[in-house]
């Protein structure tokens, strides 16, 4: 069994051409490295479970609730995810099964996205981003670990799953819930999208856009989330 999680942080720096290449190669290149190693093995692993991303559906804000069978988007991130997933699907040629987990924002009590989100709120300058109406598909880190374990213990051949919590919450609601959990006011106006685009360039889309993503497939196959509402996560972390 192989668990593959490698990949450059997409929010590490502005997306110039060098950084875009690094984001792509850190995913596709590492998968190809594993593939070539497995190809040489006499006794091959039963399965590879690989991280993927909800970026597959594109950085857009729509009324659509995306499911695994939906077509991909047409932007940079969706192109990266398409190539990433295709590199994992190649393991089928070696008779090695695979599962792909399209991750949302991973929420953890230590580091990661939440650490960046909580800093302005903690110092009384928290506010929604852009319109605040962009959805934030998310998953708590222990639930993500449990999904990996679920797929190890239950044979699901060559399947793709959205690894996101069932709750659909937008950026404004997320920020408001976080401020309430750490007892801070949310008094500042939204950070305008044009300013974010000026600061972060093309990368700003991961902050200003986002749609709802369905986790119904996992639920229908028997997985139960420990944290299905962001308020429950914050209560566990901060109270």
3D architecture notes:
This protein has a 4-stranded parallel β-sheet, sandwiched between helices. The mean pLDDT is 94. It has a single domain, classed as 3-Layer(aba) Sandwich (Rossmann fold). The chain has helices at residues 17-39, 76-89, 112-122, 141-153, 171-181, 193-200, 205-208, 216-220, 230-238, and strands spanning 2-4, 47-53, 65-66, 97-103, 105-107, 138-140, 159-163, 212-213. Helices cover 41% and strands 13% of the residues. It is of the alpha/beta class. The longest helix has 23 residues, at 17-39. It is globular.
The average pLDDT value, as a whole number, equals 94
Under the CATH scheme, which class?
Alpha Beta
Shape: globular
Order of helices and strands: EHEEHEEHEHEHHHEHH
Low-confidence sequence ranges: none
CATH topology: Rossmann fold
Largest sheet: 4 strands, parallel
Broad structural category: alpha/beta
Query: What Rg do the Cα atoms give?
Result: 18 Å
Helix run count: 9
The end-to-end distance, rounded to whole angstroms, is 38 Å
- Classify the helix fraction into a percent range: 40-55%
How much of the sequence lies in strands comes to 5-15%
Tally of DSSP β-strands: 8
Number of domains: 1
The CATH H-level superfamily is: NAD(P)-binding Rossmann-like Domain
Which architecture would the CATH scheme give at its second level?
A: 3-Layer(aba) Sandwich
Strand order of the largest sheet: 1-2-4-7
